[in-house]
Amino acid sequence: MNNKEIIDLDSKHIMQTYGRQPIALTHGKRAVVWDADGKEYLDFFAGIAVNALGQSHPKLIETIKKQAEKLIHVSNVYFTEEQVKLAKKLSEITIFDKVFFANSGAEANEGAIKLARKYTGRGEIISTNNSFHGRTLATVTATGQEKYKKPFKPLPAGFKHVDFGDSKAIANAITNDTAAVLIEAIQGEGGVIVPPENYLKEVEAICRENNVLLILDEVQTGFGRTGEMFAYELFAVKPDIITIAKVFGGGYPIGGFLATDEVASAFDFGDHGSTFGGNPLGCAVAMTVIETLISEKLVENSKTVGNYLKDKFKLLKEKYDFIKDVRGYGLFLAIELNQECDYMVDKMREKGFLINATGKNSLRFAPPLIITKEQVDKMVIALNEVFSEV
Ligand SMILES: *Cc1c(COP(=O)(O)O)cnc(C)c1O
Fold it and tell me: pTM of this prediction?
């Protein structure tokens, strides 16, 4: 099938909820993907900041083949070696002791909210305006963007929003019924918004003083995206719970939330569950993602190539005065313009580069963590061409 045939079938049989780009992807190799008309693209989007190892990484292929020959799914009624090994690995690379495995970022946040409520015996969750935490009813309520929740009222009770970047607003919002502050270290869908330098440390201190849990939503920032393994390291804070997904499975849907033994002990038998969460295939894949991030030094690559790309963006900012801001860490970067930029995404795609627009007027760059400086150079040349036509 070609692009048009696929797109026509989609409009007939798929609920039309996505503002998709008009191409169908068929296959890929590392940071390169091809569409159904045979056109080649360099991918700076990575399936919404997911495919850290790019497409068809040999280690992922080997793991998926081997694991599919043994077990794909058994449910959490039984133990599996793949699940406990991954859990142990997560405790080694983080400051946490225990994990609950889910299937997505939204589910991870749902579970974290339940754990915080059970642990504290309180109901209220404070999150920030312009945030994104998922599309389920609770997580879309925590999400600080009206457009995502307006048609779906009534929304669950117990959620409050304050401005991102304003720690005093959090202190003022806390009441005797506050269970947790749920926050992204860097707002992803909101436009790669980086908070003021000491913000997260202040939020952490406020949470401690008031005996409120800090849940850091690391769904987009986790596993090397920002140039550190986790964003809590970048900002030198110790959250009580983190939620993970996106890069975690390298494209296979797996998520989870991590907590200390103390907080995790609030969950008793039967308190939470998932049919698919932590299935052996997902766990084997996630283990390979983590091992490959480490063995191929991809967190370091995120930092060095990310800095290299950011420097190129800063040069573009000096050249074009319609560029308002360049921001982000590692391979999690944005260029904010003083105008709408959806058409630039189209132009870049026509030139063979996948990027996306996010927030109001921002272009987001979240390539696979295997991306090279040479590939960055190619993309920047094309971006400069697009900018020069503005
Ligand atoms: C993508 C994202 C989510 C939602 O993850 P899904 O897997 O789409 O449910 C939650 N929080 C953040 C910060 C995200 O970027």
Answer: 0.98
